[in-house]
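[recover] target loaded
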């Protein structure tokens, strides 16, 4: 039995690569991709010379609103769960369970964020705290623990080996 899965079958349960959950931005590999994004109506304030900010303006639920005409970097990206499902080393049921667990962790993280804060704003805030040596304020501790639990899960299941956020070596 062939348990290979098409991109949409798994990605439509997830969509995290298009939010600010996995990354803060996506690289643009060419000027043509940058022009494509601008022509399609991406907020010019959120696009740089070589990248665009997430969450993506074209994300519709968990699906790409410009999927047939998306930038090359988006077309090329495959998380490790999708790679394993597509090459048959992870059964579809296991891949879907992995995605569902990640989505549940993300939902818990978002619920733990202080009112009005986004993942992007909290990442910046926590980076500043880390650089200053200041401890995490008690009212942010639950969100920070949820942030690390979520990212550790992504590091183990979604991101390529050596490209993790939590287990990175500097």
């Amino acid at each position: 039995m062939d348990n290979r899965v098409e991109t949409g079958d798994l990605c439509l349960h997830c969509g995290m690569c298009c939010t600010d959950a996995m990354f803060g931005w996506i690289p643009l590999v060419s000027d043509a991709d940058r022009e494509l994004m601008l022509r399609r109506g991406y907020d010019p304030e959120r696009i740089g010379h070589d990248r665009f900010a997430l969450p993506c303006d074209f994300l519709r639920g968990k699906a790409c609103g410009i999927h047939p005409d998306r930038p090359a970097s988006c077309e090329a990206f495959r998380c490790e769960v999708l790679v394993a499902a597509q090459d048959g080393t992870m059964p579809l049921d296991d891949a879907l369970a992995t995605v569902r667990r990640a989505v549940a962790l993300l939902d818990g993280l978002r619920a733990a964020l202080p009112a009005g804060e986004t993942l992007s704003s909290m990442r910046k805030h926590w980076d500043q705290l880390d650089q200053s040596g200041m401890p995490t304020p008690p009212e942010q501790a639950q969100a920070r623990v949820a942030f690390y639990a979520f990212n550790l899960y992504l590091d183990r299941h979604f991101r390529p080996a050596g490209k993790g956020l939590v287990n990175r070596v500097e």
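[recover] notes: Strands lie at 25-27, 51-53, 59-60, 63-64.
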